[in-house]
Structure formats: structure tokens, C-alpha cells
Amino acid sequence: MHKAAMKLYYCETLNPRKACAAARFLKADVEFFRVDLASGEQRTAEFLALNPNGKVPVLQDDAGTLWEANAIMCRLSDSVASDFWPHDRRQIDVLRWLSWDASYFTRHGATLWFETLIKPLFGGKPDAAVIEEAKAAFRLHARVLDGHLATNSVAVGETLTVADFALAAALPYAAAAEIPLAEFRHIRTWYERLEELDAWRNPFPA
């Protein structure tokens, strides 16, 4: 019996971007369902039954409903028996980078993305103090990643993992969001290789 395709609920924001890129990169059997945040679809009873946080992405499959983009990337990897989410000694190192990224690297990149690109869409004014603080924090933590990538071609091991997609989440918006990516040569080199992947450059359904 043919297994039903997984359903991936998304919109064109940072965290769903990771999940959609992973689905395309892994060639997973996924149906994409766009959630219109502007009209409040994420606050409907139907959507809150999928994710009580009222956020995307959400993945539905035979095993149930899963929210949080990093977990979804791991589930997608397992669905196609890929080592994008490794099950060997690399796994703990991948977890370390996922945790570090959420607490520091993408956290500050996402702040810059929100302040410079998203707030103005809703009539808000970017907060200059918040922007400067986020830039300083981003630079501080980017130095750590840049040092790591000076001697490593990917975040963990020899091949791409979910850690790479997580670390790169805000970087497609670096120029527009004034994320100071250009200052970090090794991050830039690593990110340019990611940009060669069509799944990363164009993660969303047409």
C-alpha cells in the first residue's frame, strides 16, 4: 500500500525556509501547504490543533504531527534514510551546533531580519538600538563559527547535515537585513557552497 505523502505547512519566513529546503534537498515525498500569516490562518482552531504555538512549519505524517523546524528536518531525513540527520557519533555534535545556533548565531541574525525587513511590512519602525546590539552579538558569535569553518568544510563531519541548514537560516537575507556576513571569510565560503544547491536557493513551492 502506498504511503500518503507527508504534509508540510509553511510560509516564506526563516524557520519554514529550513524545513522546505530540507524537504527539497532530501527529495522527500512532501505536499506543501502554505499558511497565510497575514490573514491569521495560524490562529484558527484548525491550525492550533496542529501546533498550539500557532507557528509554522508543521509536518504531518503517519507518525503524527511534528512542529519545530529542526525536528522536522530530522524527521524528513529519517523518512528517506539519509544521514543528513546522522545516527552515528556525529549526532551529539550536530545537537551541539543546533543548540548553539538557536541560542546565539541565528537568534541574532533573525533579530536583524525581523527589525529591518519584517517590522516595516507591518508599519513598524526598526529599533536602532536593538539592531546595533544584535549586530555586535552576531559578530561575537560569528567569530566562533568562522574559526570552526577555517578548518572544516561543513559544520559536522564531511557532508552536509541539518546543522548546516540551521546555521544558514538567516543568511539568505544577509544583505537586505544588514547582517555583517561579509566580515567572516570562512562563513562566507561555506555559505556560498550552500547557495549552489537549488534546494537551498529556491526552497519554497512556486
UniProtKB/TrEMBL annotation:
Residues 87-206 form the GST C-terminal domain. Residues 3-84 form the GST N-terminal domain. Its EC number is 2.5.1.18. It comes from the Bacteria. InterPro entries: Glutathione-S-Trfase_C-like, Glutathione-S-Trfase_C_sf, Glutathione_S-Trfase, Glutathione_S-Trfase_N, GST_C, Thioredoxin-like_sf. Belongs to the GST superfamily. This is Glutathione S-transferase.
